Amino acid sequence: MKKIIVTGGAGFIGSHVVRRMVNTYLDYEIINLDKLTYAGNLENLKDIEGRPNYRFVKGDIVDAEFINKLFEEERPDGIIHLAAESHVDRSISDPSAFVMTNVIGTVNLLNAARSTWEGAYDQHRFYHVSTDEVYGALGAEGFFTEETSYDPHSPYSASKASSDHFVRAYGDTYGLDIVISNCSNNYGSHHFPEKLIPLAINNIKHRRPIPIYGKGENVRDWLWVEDHARAIDLIYHQATSGATYNIGGHNEWTNIDLIQLLCRVMDQKLGRSEGESAKLITYVTDRAGHDLRYAIDSSKLQKDLGWKPSITFEEGLEKTVDWFLENEEWLERVTSGQYLDYYKQQYKG
Ligand code: NAD
Ligand code: TYD
Predict the structure, then answer these.
(1) Ligand 1 in reach of 82 Cβ (< 6 A)
(2) What does the pLDDT read at residue 346?
(3) CATH number given to 2-184+224-249+290-310
(4) Which of 54, 48, 57 is nearest to 29 (CA)?
(5) Are 164 and 134 in contact (CB under 8 A)?
(6) Are 180 and 130 a contacting pair, CB within 8 Å?
(7) Rounded Cα distance, 98 and 88, in Å
(8) Which of 5, 6, 13, 195 for mutating ligand 1's site (highest number of atoms within 8 Å of CB)?
(9) How far is the centre of ligand 2, averaged over its atoms, from the C-alpha of 287 (Å)?
(10) pLDDT-based confidence at 339, cuts 50/70/90?
(11) Domain residues of the chain, as ranges?
């Protein structure tokens, strides 16, 4: 029996990881530890709520006492750590929240793992889920590899870089079994509508302006969230201790080309005439310190663990649009804030 704590399991990527682990490993015990910030939504996991191998624990990784107690009581075999403040624009307006959760929260988890697993580090695993944004920005050429030097520019990426360094330091200094993966931009179902793709889907649906920062020339490498969850599963189970893996879709789009494609898909799905949604595109003031281009070389993961993306971007984007249009209630409850009441009703908390 394997007991795994997944932190941030009520968020976008975390909910896909939790669902995958609960559905795949019936003999495991998956504990979803989440503070339920504005980005945490237990409605993302309604479909697996009653499963015998799944449990939700509400808690803050910044609270060291709580985390130590949880580790002592549960004595998990491993942790897959996704809980984070994740939105670059929020990190520009409030950097401190990112230091607290992403840096202090990660160190609290490392300390709890270190003391609970002492004497048996080789039988436990600490997996930190990180981002390609720690590598900084690329020009027109080249890719981020696992050897690329860290060069974060936003408070968000600086906090993730810092937490990556702490995770490696605990591996090197105390001998904890650690693994880290750095992934490119994800997209898919249950994506919180503050990020580019779900925000644009929501605005197109309601015929509101689609804000494009600067000239729309920044490039992101988009990966289907379920392919990320599958990579996390593989890496957690098969990576050697201390390993780092880059995860990405080999799928680069300028923001403006991506939004043009999304507008075409939405026109079709909503029965609008071609070009109607694209009229909503509105150029707005650029993000401060906006990284020009991210692109991942994921050949190590492909070669070592046989992973590759399972669908094309066109397929994934269509599936994503379909999901958002079929789950209007989810989107409405998230945008109106009603989803925040779900925990109280469900868990009488
Ligand atoms: P998200 O913002 O959708 O979810 C974050 C989750 O963490 C939420 O459920 C939130 O309630 C929880 N959380 C936040 N602070 C917490 C705290 N102090 N204690 C406990 N729980 C807390 O984020 P996401 O997009 O799903 O990203 C998950 C992880 O993957 C993050 O570590 C992020 O850096 C990384 N990542 C994200 C992307 C992406 O494209 N979204 C790409 C690469 C890596
Ligand atoms: P985002 O989804 O916030 O992810 P990240 O900043 O982590 O890459 O943004 C993706 C790209 O889209 C990024 O280049 C910023 C840009 N963007 C816009 O042009 N308009 C928007 O309203 C948002 C949220 C993002």
Answers:
(1) yes
(2) 76
(3) 3.40.50.720
(4) 54
(5) yes
(6) yes
(7) 10
(8) 13
(9) 9
(10) confident
(11) 2-184+224-249+290-310
